[in-house]
Amino acid sequence: MTKLPKISVIIPCFNEEMWVAEVIRSILKCPSVSEIIAVNDGSTDETLKILKSFQGKIKIISYKKNQGKGYALAAGIEKAKGEIVIFMDAHHFNVQNNHIKALTVPLIENQADAVLGTTVSLIPGPFRSFTGFRAYWKKDLLLHLAKIKKTKFGVEIYLNEIFKEKRVKLIYPPGLIHLAKEQKMPLSEVPVAYLNQFIEMSQMLAQVKGIKPQKIKKILNPKKIKTLEGLRETVQKLKNKEIMKLLKDYILSYFEK
């Protein structure tokens, strides 16, 4: 019988006190998972305290200052003992062993080089690949760690780019639940959170598409853009048609869904 590879689940956490315990408890029930690595990325709430309540059952990496999602994932990859790494946001619910298998079997059976799991099937294709639930062979990520650390919220875009010529499988794990921002934070904070994420993703997207990030930074100035409506107006007024199309097609439509 062929020995199955070990699977490490990496969970980046920033102010996830409301959700992370339930997520970890679900994953601990999955026999396919060899280890759980939770990365506390500068949380200012009770996230770290909750993670420590699982001491001995999970591995914990903690930073006092927020480093960004890309940095957190890279730190988890470096610590992982598994041959396969799964990235999972700290607000995925009802995680079951069949979800873990669905994400990893295509790698094990050499049907894919990367597997992305999404709970959203109604939005246009390009945006489904922004999911935070995905699996890779660890060895395929090691050469990219330095760049992954710098990607912040653009990490999914960067990963999609470096695997674009490889076999990527998209799956819809039945029963898996993923909370959107408007479900996990006060409504008054949602627009700013989306704007910040938009800017970081746009900078990474510009980089992988060959556009100088400085151009995006100048256009998307958070000191001038305060609302999603202001963001739309800024994009509509762009004279650079290439950048306008890039932001409309790959980013703006995603955040309007």
TrEMBL record:
PANTHER family: RFBJ PROTEIN (PTHR48090:SF7), UNDECAPRENYL-PHOSPHATE 4-DEOXY-4-FORMAMIDO-L-ARABINOSE TRANSFERASE-RELATED (PTHR48090). The lineage of its organism: Bacteria, Candidatus Shapironibacteriota. It comes from Candidatus Shapirobacteria bacterium CG10_big_fil_rev_8_21_14_0_10_40_9. This is Glycosyltransferase 2-like domain-containing protein. Residues 8-130 form the Glycosyltransferase 2-like domain. It comes from the Bacteria. SUPFAM superfamilies: Nucleotide-diphospho-sugar transferases (SSF53448). InterPro entries: Glyco_trans_2-like (IPR001173), Glycosyltransferase_2 (IPR050256), Nucleotide-diphossugar_trans (IPR029044).
